[in-house]
Amino acid sequence: MNYQKVNLIYDDMEQERNEIIIAMLSQLPFESFTEDTDNGVTGYIPNEAYCYDSIMEALEPVLLSFPKLEISTELIKDQNWNEAWEKNFSPITIGSACHIRAPFHPENSDCEHEIIIEPKMSFGTGHHSTTFLMIDIMSEMNFAYKSVLDMGCGTGVLAIYASMLNAKHVTAIDIDSWAYENSIENIERNHIANVDALEGDAADIEGKLYDIILANINRNILLEDMEAYVDCLKEEGQILFSGFYTEDLPIIQEKALSLGLSFVQRKEKNNWVAALFELL
After folding, report:
1. HSE (CB half, 13 Å, CA atoms) of 152?
2. What's the CA gap between 245 and 218, in Å, rounded?
3. pLDDT tens digits for range 106-115
4. CB 159 within 8 A of CB 150
5. Domain spanning 123-279, CATH architecture
6. What residues have CB less than 8 Å from 76, skipping those under 6 apart?
7. How many CB atoms lie within 10 A of CB 219?
8. Do 92 and 161 contact (CB within 8 A), yes or no?
9. CA 11 – CA 45 distance, rounded (Å)
């Protein structure tokens, strides 16, 4: 499949402004974003789905805040996808425990855990605030000998990290076939033996039980599928949500509490939130 690489450049390219652009464009069929305070935001969208007018319509509510916005595109043929990522994907260290890099980056021996990710079209490199927050909270949790579910696994980065934190077994699920295949590749790349990747959705976890559930998706899917997640959570199990904004946290908490979950903690970054709950 061919893709359009859409570059958005503007003044004051701070990460918070990048998040605004990504949030506006997420309603369109973009499959991945990279962000950089020097180069703005780059989005990748299937060539047949690209429409300049649709992009401008999606950005219309915030255009006054970006008076010097420049948009350029580049056709990325399927065989050039890895090359495109090599130009845009930089290593990232989260806390002192986790370093995420691509295969073409040098090793980092200063971190306890190093994850090698070749993201292709999948979401989850650690650069987006939600992935960063999930990993940050995961670093403080006890995964030893636990059964773990990673819903909406994207690249598989959270599932891989859970395994590195001594989880007994991890199931990684994504509805997108590209993400499913990418997860398998990254699981093998990191020599992880106890993570199984599945292509599917919440219907595939019915009747299963987990000690910890990770769900970095989006507000609407979390609200729609939360009951299914809770039904699969063991007593005193924990569930870590992200993929929503600070102003959405009250509605997530309300739904969680109605299902018997108890709020434990939250962390915020660039108006995104990760929230940890426990089933008592």
Report:
1. 20
2. 9
3. 888 788 999 9
4. yes
5. 3-Layer(aba) Sandwich (3.40)
6. 2, 3, 4, 5, 44, 84
7. 17
8. no
9. 23
Q: What is the DSSP string of 84-105?
A: HHHHH---EEETTTEEEE-TTS
- Listing DSSP states for 108-159 in one string gives -TTSSEEEE---TT-S-SS-SHHHHHHHHHHTTS--TT-EEEEET-TTSHHH
pLDDT tens, 13-35? 555 677 788 888 888 888 777 76
**3 state DSSP class of 274:** strand
Q: Do residues 149 and 197 touch, judged by C-beta distance below 8 A?
A: no
| Cβ atoms 236, 225 nearer than 8 A | no
Residue ranges of domains in the chain: 3-87, 123-279
Is the pTM above the cut of 0.90?
Answer: no
List 156's β-bridge partners, or say none: none
Classify burial at 9, counting beta carbons within 10 Å of its beta carbon; exposed 0-12, middle 13-18, buried 19 or more.
middle
Handedness of CA 19, 23, 28, 33 (dihedral sign): positive
CATH number of 3-87: 3.30.70.260
The residues pairing with 215 across neighbouring beta strands, listed in sequence order, are 151, 241
Q: How many CB atoms lie within 10 A of CB 215?
A: 24
